[in-house]
Predict the 3D structure of the following.
Amino acid sequence: MNSIVIAKFGGSVIGVDGISIPIIIQRINSLSKDAKVVAVFSAPLTVVEGKPTSLTDVALELGKRAEEGKAFDLIILRKTYEKILELVSSEFQEKCRRDIDELLDMVRIELEKAMEKKEFADEVRSLTLAYSGEILMSYVMKYIIQSQGIKSKAVKLENWPIITDSNIESTNFIASESNKRVEHLEKLLEQNQVITIGGFIGRTADGIITTYERGGSDRTAADLGILLHKKFDVKIDLEKDNSVVSADPRIVKEGLTEVHSISYNEARLAGMFGMNILDPIAIKEILENGASLPIVITDMRNPEKTTTVERKITNTLTIKGKFWAGNFRYDNPVMMWGSITSPHISPYEKHKTHIHLTKGNFRMIDSLRNKYDIDGGAKITVDNGDMEVGNVRGTRQRVQDPQGRAGMFTVLEHFSELIAP
């Protein structure tokens, strides 16, 4: 089985005006020695008001101006690509320049549509972002790689392998439809050493261009892995501008250690809590499609520093949906994707909710944002681990007087209870 590395290079790795592209070429050269490479590219950066800014943000601002009927100028986009063009050899420069001109002209056409409709949305938005960012970057990188004597081709939108639903601005991967369109990519891999493709972009079965949410290039790499893993020995390599450490370096400044191996679940949870490891939806898509792909996160400037993300058996119990009643005991961690309540009106203790962990952590995932809570007198016990929950409430129940006096009532209070070390 032939080996394929799907290497993703994000905007911060590419840098302002492609300043880090020489290092990217070194990495592609290294990776392509032992495998074919599918290189996934995000939009590069430029400088706006003294700050590094993604061309995606520049394009969104141009779209906003067009929507408001204001004049727009593509010069900031063109300057970035003109700078990157300097890395293309003279043999390919004229072809590359024509592609830059052609795609930026397509950006202008889409922005004119936005100005006419007074709306920058749906496919006008997705095509503007694609042509100004990821698609154009993948074309330019093809020429830079060819300039190094490496046989390379870019995937064009008309042959796009990633098929999505029709939610244009925050789309979802459809593996069954994508599998019908992967043959062209496989042929390109047979004929070339390196394939370049834009991240973040999808296409419906009807040909409408869509986009993932911001940061969706991780998902592109994962989706390509899902499509190719049955015919090839696939590894996903996410090239970053730093290594993975034991806590979020934006919050924790001291005592950080490098992390060499984590599970899918650990990486997914870290992503949900804001750590920039990889998009948790990428892992979700891999798991939902029955794949088990090795993911390596590489510090691009120090490629000996890597973190392997792999599927590990953790014995973690995941509960999705509201837990209404009953009790159980479990000897490993529990992750809760829902609220917990208890049937307080039942006179039988065996019907009341009691979740008891003998070891491991109990976590309600992003409970405040998801509005997961504990109420109704539910009880959670953790013998040896941490507990992370959202809002906790009890409840009051108005019942008839226990002595049977007519017209008299009493109030029973059912307290929710949390017990942890």
Remarks:
- The longest strand covers residues 233-240.
- The radius of gyration is 26 Å.
